[in-house]
């Protein structure tokens, strides 16, 4: 078979010429202990963020994206708990092991976060200028006047007109797009090394969404900040990200360069997500969907967590929990198809029935010889690597 096993965990997929990661998450487990049971919302997530890159994290609601982001900055509240053995390494230090005082010096300074809903993230009783200036004063020895000047300058940098006047206004006096720009200004005012953007465009119309994404890209080019962009929108991922992590049921199920994922997704869940994206020029009687729903975090199924929704599932999927397989340069997939790619070809009709005609699983889009997992399994003869199991 050519699948090699290793005694120690391997780091995430790395592309040639890419610098060492500035942020590394290793075996992150964030569980919520409730009377109804233990919800394993994040269950063994590992990923790397490299300096200056945009990493997309995508998945449907309940997959663990936002909990992962909050865990990085230790913002999990009871009954949630980050379990022993988890690591979040930033510039060589484990954030989960730092004293609170040292973590506060990093949070909002070296690592910043843009929250999903600015109206609830911003304090309604302080002006937006005061809130940005407070970030400066907490982390730097500067006067109130100097901090205010920097706050106004940052509002101007993120494209807010008449920043002197707007800085004196309260969050409720601003539009949704302007509030999101304020959140971006607050996150970037100290030139952080990493910004985590949690669904930053969800509540905005498409025009404002495009402006916010362009603003993030421009500020990234200007400051060299790495961005972790959390979203459920694959269109956003395609527009701004270089690499993408696909999450499902608290786990990473695929990681890949964006172009490679869109050309040939490996994991059936990623395949289903792409099948559901409407395409210009295609005529469908109905939108493609993935059948079923994410199982509850208190009762993840044995074996593969996607098996009840997967068109390729067979008995092994119910029996064995799939490991992460390294299936090529910069690519990993949590699917037994990495070792048995012929089953994908055999089940193309079932896939079409499940994901709908016109999806990436359809026979018209992928002939047997075009299976990316088969290509990876053929190994050196095709010029690719054989799949490796990542413990």
Automatic annotation (TrEMBL):
What UniProt keywords are attached to this protein's entry?
Answer: ATP-binding, Cell membrane, Membrane, Nucleotide-binding, Transport
Locate the compositionally biased regions of type Basic and acidic residues.
363-376
Give the species: Roseisolibacter agri
One GO MF term on file is:
ATP hydrolysis activity
- Region Disordered, as annotated, extends over 350-391
Record's bilayer topology term: Peripheral membrane protein
Q: How is this protein named in the record?
A: ABC transporter ATP-binding protein
The UniProt entry, under InterPro entries, shows: AAA+_ATPase (IPR003593), ABC_Ni/Peptide_Import (IPR050388), ABC_transporter-like_ATP-bd (IPR003439), ABC_transporter-like_CS (IPR017871), Oligopep_ABC_C (IPR013563), P-loop_NTPase (IPR027417)
Organismal lineage: Bacteria, Pseudomonadati, Gemmatimonadota, Gemmatimonadia, Gemmatimonadales
Which Pfam families does the UniProt entry name for this protein? ABC_tran (PF00005), oligo_HPY (PF08352)
Enumerate the CDD domains for this protein.
ABC_NikE_OppD_transporters
């Amino acid at each position: 078979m050519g699948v090699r096993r290793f005694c120690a965990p391997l780091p995430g997929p790395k592309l040639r010429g890419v610098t060492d990661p500035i942020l590394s998450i290793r075996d992150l487990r964030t569980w919520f202990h409730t009377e109804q049971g233990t919800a394993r919302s994040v269950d063994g997530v590992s990923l790397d963020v490299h300096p200056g890159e945009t990493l997309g994290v995508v998945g449907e609601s309940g997959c663990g994206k936002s909990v992962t982001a909050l865990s990085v900055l230790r913002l999990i509240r009871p009954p949630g708990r980050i379990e022993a053995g988890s690591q979040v390494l930033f510039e060589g230090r484990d954030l989960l092991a730092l004293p609170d005082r040292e973590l506060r010096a990093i949070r909002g300074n070296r690592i910043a976060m843009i929250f999903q809903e600015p109206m609830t993230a911003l304090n309604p009783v302080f002006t937006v200028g005061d809130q940005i200036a407070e970030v400066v004063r907490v982390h730097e020895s500067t006067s109130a006047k100097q901090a205010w000047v920097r706050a106004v300058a940052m509002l101007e940098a993120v494209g807010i007109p008449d920043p002197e006047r707007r800085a004196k206004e309260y969050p409720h006096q601003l539009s949704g797009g302007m509030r999101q720009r304020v959140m971006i200004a607050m996150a970037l005012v100290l030139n952080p090394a990493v910004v985590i953007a949690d669904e930053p465009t969800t509540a905005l119309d498409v025009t404002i969404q495009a402006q916010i994404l362009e603003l993030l890209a421009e500020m990234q080019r200007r400051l060299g900040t790495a961005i972790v962009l959390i979203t459920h929108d694959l269109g956003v991922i395609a527009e701004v990200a270089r690499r993408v992590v696909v999450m499902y049921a608290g786990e990473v199920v695929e990681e890949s360069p964006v172009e490679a994922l869109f050309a040939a997704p490996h994991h059936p869940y990623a395949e289903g997500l792409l099948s559901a994206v409407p395409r210009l020029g295609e005529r469908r009687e109905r939108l493609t969907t993935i059948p079923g729903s994410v199982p509850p975090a208190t009762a993840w199924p044995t074996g593969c967590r996607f098996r009840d929704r997967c068109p390729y599932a067979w008995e092994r999927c119910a029996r064995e929990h799939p490991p992460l397989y390294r299936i090529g340069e910069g690519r990993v997939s949590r699917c037994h198809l990495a070792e048995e790619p012929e089953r994908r070809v055999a089940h193309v009709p079932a896939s079409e029935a499940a994901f709908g005609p016109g999806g990436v699983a359809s026979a018209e889009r992928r002939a047997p010889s075009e299976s990316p997992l088969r290509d990876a399994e053929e190994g050196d003869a095709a010029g690719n690597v054989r799949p490796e199991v990542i413990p």
